[in-house]
Design brief:
With about 150 residues, the chain is mainly alpha-helical. Helices cover about 50% and strands about 10% of the residues. The chain binds zinc ion (3 copies). The site of one zinc ion has 8 residues, from strand 4 and helix 5.
Length: about 150
């Protein structure tokens, strides 16, 4: 048996429209449909979007760039792990040893700078490291030329 078509009056434009096709579904309402008709609903959404278009665009842009940046970092880390598995493993062993108090972080062995990085001469011996500041660590790896600073 075919259900009798029911109608509903839009509370915005006042036009009486078929309930099933004229209004969006709204579970919270008693008759299961929105109080405003589909046309009025769309107009409302457009109006809201237009009024806030700049804000929405900016939000979309920011969300997108954060997403891209995070993806880049993730990619970099996983590539790094693939490229230098022994390096990463040695570093992990070293930092867990420091955490457990087995080993202590030391100032740069050249200049005494407190902010230092661990340098491994041999990754198969993860706890044998030299502590160097960023600058002297860079020098050791040949990142800087002598005498430029
Ligand atoms: Zn309407
Ligand atoms: Zn140093
Ligand atoms: Zn190093």
């Amino acid at each position: 048996m075919k259900k009798k078509e029911w109608t509903k009056k839009c509370r915005v434009c006042g036009v009486v429209k078929p309930g099933e096709t004229g209004f969006y579904v709204c579970k919270g309402n008693r008759d299961g449909r929105y109080g405003k008709c589909i046309e009025c609903y769309k107009a409302y959404v457009n109006m809201y979007r237009e009024a806030n278009i700049e804000r929405i665009r900016k939000y979309d842009r920011e969300r997108f760039s954060t997403y891209k940046r995070k993806a880049k970092v993730r990619e970099y880390i996983s590539r790094y792990k693939e490229k230098y598995p022994d390096k990463v493993a040695a570093r992990n062993r070293l930092y867990s040893a420091i955490k457990r108090g087995v080993l202590q972080k030391m100032p740069c062995e050249v200049c005494g700078e407190n902010k230092s990085e661990a340098h491994h001469d041999d990754y198969s011996r993860p706890l044998e490291v030299r502590w160097l500041c960023r600058y002297h660590h860079g020098l050791l790896h040949g990142h800087y030329k002598y005498g430029t600073e």
